[in-house]
Amino acid sequence: MTDKLYERDSHIRRFEAKVLSCEKMPSENKSSSNEEALFEVVLDKTAFFPGGGGQKADGGTINGIKVTAVKQRGDEVIHCIALKLTAGESVIGEIDWESRLSRMQNHSGEHILSGLINSEYGFDNVGFHMGSEFLEIDFSGKLNGEDIKHIEKRANEIIAANNPVNILFPKDDELDKITYRSKGELSGQVRIVEITGADRCACCAPHVKQTGEVGIIKILKFLPNRGGTRLNVVCGMDALEDYNRKSEELSLISRAVSAKQDSASKAVERLVAQQEITKQALSSLNRSVLEMRIASLPERVEGNICIFESAYFDAVCARALANEAVLHTDAIAAVFCGSDREGYRYCISSSAVDLKEKLCQINEALKGNGGGSAVMIQGNCKAGEVKIKRFFDSFK
Ligand SMILES: [Zn+2]
Fold first, then answer.
1. Residue 206 CA, ligand 1 centroid: distance in Å
2. 293-320 pLDDT tens trace
3. Ligand 1 centre and the CA of 186: distance in Å?
4. Rounded to the nearest whole angstrom, what is the distance from the C-alpha of residue 59 to the centroid of ligand 1?
5. Which residues are within 8 A (CB) of 203 and not within 5 positions of it... i.e. 6 or more apart?
């Protein structure tokens, strides 16, 4: 049996222990995450948390060698490692503190929120997932924007108060007298995590010792979920990273729109409105160009018609021009929009030539791709204006 140091003291990062056993790992126990591990080591005591209650197992080293997985088997904690040890020898274990602290900040933050929501609104935590970017916590009832603001403030007040977090191992009769949250039927010795002023909950995972260690709780988003509410939350160092990422993004936006950060959204709104006006103006200009082009088409054209327009000439106008131009010839009418540098969009129309049949030939000659029907094909091509014109001079 392993003495589980993490159950009583979540801040032991380094510990000395004796090896109880070191067995060659059965091949069926290997997984992709512990491929390198050859041995399963059991120690007389350990600070390595084997995972549970929604929190991942710890990483770290034993005698400087990476522990690739930690798991619980019965009362024992198994450390998977590529290091052969001898029963009775002393080893030094060191857990990956940065990851552990981040997980404790998030997990304790989740307990604070769940406890407060439970006591203030009576809703239960019905789902909890610690993702790589944020926590996902599901509650059994509906919360609105005001509730979220209120709970977030209350949760951060608990952090600022730096309240103690107590770990209790109550006897059965003591357990009967206290109220606590729990996710189901419990058996054996129940471990209670008590966050003063916020929560009391049965949980097996290591938590911070004082609420101040959580740093900050930020609710990023809340959304309806199966009749209840799902929260996306970040705590502690993860919240700082999230803040940094978003600050960087906002600073890029504000630079791009030449506005102060606190008025960047207004500047973006103005840009979007301006873009809408520009779009309408361009569309009206395109229609004028279309009318002009149609009016200037000769009554009859011998051979193919090949018209070039700018990249701003939209697809609807290009199609209308091709459809009109084809009435002036017994061959093909082709409209190309773009430039030699950027390439062209094409729209080709014909009632005399089966374009579907000629599609491959056209695309090959113009270094293009596209498709369509026997009477109209559309696509893009890389060939330049001179080459395109030369091709349609003789194409039948
Ligand atoms: Zn928990």
1. 8
2. 999 999 999 999 999 999 999 999 999 9
3. 14
4. 19
5. 53, 111, 191, 192, 193
What's the gap in Å between 67 CA and the centre of ligand 1? 24
> Would you kindly state where each structural domain of the chain is located, as residue ranges?
3-95, 101-248, 283-394
| Token code pair at residue 257 | 């729109």
The rounded Å distance from CA 194 to ligand 1 centre is 11
Tell me yes or no: is domain 3-95 CATH 2.40.30.130: yes
Is CATH 3.30.980.10 what the domain over 101-248 is classified as, yes or no?
A: yes
> Ligand 1 mean position to 111 CA, how many Å?
6
The domain over range 283-394 is classified in CATH as 3.40.50.1820: no
Q: How far does the centroid of ligand 1 lie from the alpha carbon of residue 152, in Å?
A: 19
Residue-wise pLDDT for 2-11, tens only, equals 999 999 999 9
Is the model's pTM score more than 0.90?
no
